[in-house]
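Cross-check.
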Amino acid sequence: MVHVHAPPIPCLVSCLHGLCALLCRLAHSQKKVVPPPPIHVFFGTDTNKGVSKGIYRSIFDSALGQLTPPVLIAATARPSYLAVSPPGSSRRSLYAVNAINDPAATVTSFMLDPGTGNLQQTGQVPSGGAGPAYVSVDSTGHAAFVANYVGASITSYRVQPDGTLSQPVERLDFKDHQKFGAPGPNSARQENSHPHCVTISPDDRFLLVCDLGTDHISVFYIHPETGQLSDPHLFTNERPGSGPRHVVFHPNGRWVYCINEIDSSIDRCLWTATRFSNAPQGLLVNSTFSVKTIAPDFPAEKNTAAEIAISPDGNFLYASNRGKILWSSFRLQKTATLRCFSGSPAAAKRLATLRWIRRRSGCSAAIRTPQMSRSFAATPLRESSLAPRRPSLWIRRSLPSSPEPRRQAATNP
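Predicted model, tokenized:
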């Protein structure tokens, strides 16, 4: 007879522990990685061409650098510029100016679902003038501003608890040339004032307004309690006929770059602001540095510069042109000067607006293509990537487009 001795209890316990640990490791290795939230990209379009219907949405694949085919998510008249309320709030909103050449033009509010990227219209208010071309929201999500290109005015709003805009709080008429400066020398483009952007300073205390018609940038102090704007301080680059269009702050808050539409140039300015409680002032200082967005031998009259954007790491600046060259890419030096290292050939003639796709918010009011003829996306380069190279820019696909009419001075901001 053979006797089989059972293993001791401590040995069994040790084996069970080892088996459990092995099973846990296997389960962990087979656990599915949770994908990051989708990055929604929104397109404002020019509905006057009879091709587009309103605001479109794509999903951006950051690994492949590709956009899904755009789909219509909100039918609205000529949403030429978009802005999204700041992240962190329980309710997200998207705002679109309806850039029709009519004094009854409007600004439309949409409730944004960060998960699906769907939009639901929640309100519509007067823009305060014809041809609104720009809308901005401060970082607190409490105030918004609109520039009316054709109507030569800017308008301020309160953002209400439900995310909609109030009726206009204040409207400033830039036709007051004693206050805002006389029109520039280019009679075809500067027959009147044309406010083209309303950019809020990083600390939410000041509003910068580029007036393409007078070659001035107006700087206003924003009253923190009433939202009223102070009398403006006017800045000029001393180049009549340049046509300032948009400005952007560098992430360090000390440098401001202005893109000039008519002469296709970029100016660098120094920014400083006082903190006197009785009369705070924001000041732009002309650094006398300017660079062209087009090649020296390219006729300036055949190009108009459009948008300007700086990568979140502050190392690269991008400018769009509506002419032979679409993109101009610059590397920012330590002295804040620009060195051009790339120009992308024209894939669409009239790309007007670029916004950075921000991962943390899961959505972005990113791009406007007036004819919806191309889809674009851009991501910042690595901070250590200082050698000249092409930016991370992808052209995904083309959509049907209609012939582009001749540009009009005041009806096509």
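The helical segments are 9-29, 177-180. The longest strand covers residues 282-292. Passed to J.P. for a second look.
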